Amino acid sequence: MNALFHHLRLAREFARVGVIRKSQFRVEFLTQVVMDTAWYLVHIATFEILFSHTDSLAGWSRAEVRVFLGFLFLSDAFWMIWLGQCWHFGRELKDGVLDSLRLRPGAPVFVYFFQRFSLEACVNGAMALGWLLFALWDIPGALAPLGLLKLAWALALAFWARTALSVGFTIAEFRAVNSDLSNLAWEVTMTLADRPADVFPLRMRQLLTSLVPVAALSSLPAAFVLGRISPLEAAGHTLWIFLLGLGVFAWWRRSFRHYASALG
């Protein structure tokens, strides 16, 4: 419990430093908000145009896809708020600047991946939350007490999966320095995550809900809240992805112990 509170205090300090840093670069702040807002609008417009020609997309209705997009946007905002540092991992590993992680007051995996707090992403997160609540308004019972509990569960699953995948993709960089494999993996992941998993063939869906749980970023949480999967099935997915995340973190720590500075 003491370790948990310690890392929460570290997160608070990261957030404080991030707010101070971004308050000095207002043009960059505004530009990032505008770019991410445009990304949201493109996704919304794409699906709205598709549904002007059909009533169902792989079994998902217009209202259900709006909920799906809400989870996609909000999990992406979480990634931008806390995990943007992972985008720089390959270069920093190559440059040998990770040595200081061994001296910092916290678990290396937490200190590295959560150090770059993004204030502008909080604005996008607020917009994403607003869209999700708007989408859920049309779903009977979604905003009732039980529905809100399911929503909290679904969001926790999406955020955990984002964290596990962010850490997991960087493990490849330890084996192939200067490969940018983690960034490539994220590009592919985002391409797969921005559409309901049901549009893919069965084998691909099984992969996206198990070994590489991309569906947990958006499709699975939305399906749970919408009642497309049962609580028991959702619990099974949650348990598996939770254990997978713990395994990924342990693997990353083991890889980091063998890390050698480029200067060393």
Question: In words, what does this structure look like?
Answer:
By secondary structure, this protein is mostly helical. The protein has one domain. The protein is built from eleven helices and no strands. The protein has helices at 2-23, 26-51, 62-82, 89-95, 108-113, 119-136, 145-175, 181-193, 202-208, 219-226, 231-257. Helix 2 (26-51) runs parallel beside helix 6 and helix 7 runs parallel beside helix 11 (231-257). The longest helix is centred in the middle third of the chain and has 31 residues, at 145-175.
Summarize this structure briefly.
With 264 residues, the protein is mainly alpha-helical. The protein is 70% helix and 0% strand.
How many H/I helical runs?
A: 11
Q: How many whole angstroms does the radius of gyration measure?
A: 19 Å
Strand content: under 5%
User: If you average the pLDDT, what whole number results?
Assistant: 87
* End-to-end C-alpha gap: 36 Å
Task: List how many beta strands DSSP finds.
Answer: 0
Q: Domains counted in the coordinates: how many?
A: 1
Portion in helices: over 70%
Helix and strand arrangement:
Elements (H helix, E strand, L loop, with lengths): L1 H22 L2 H26 L10 H21 L6 H7 L12 H6 L5 H18 L8 H31 L5 H13 L8 H7 L10 H8 L4 H27 L7
Helix pairs in contact: 2-3, 2-6, 3-6, 3-7, 3-10, 7-8, 7-10, 7-11
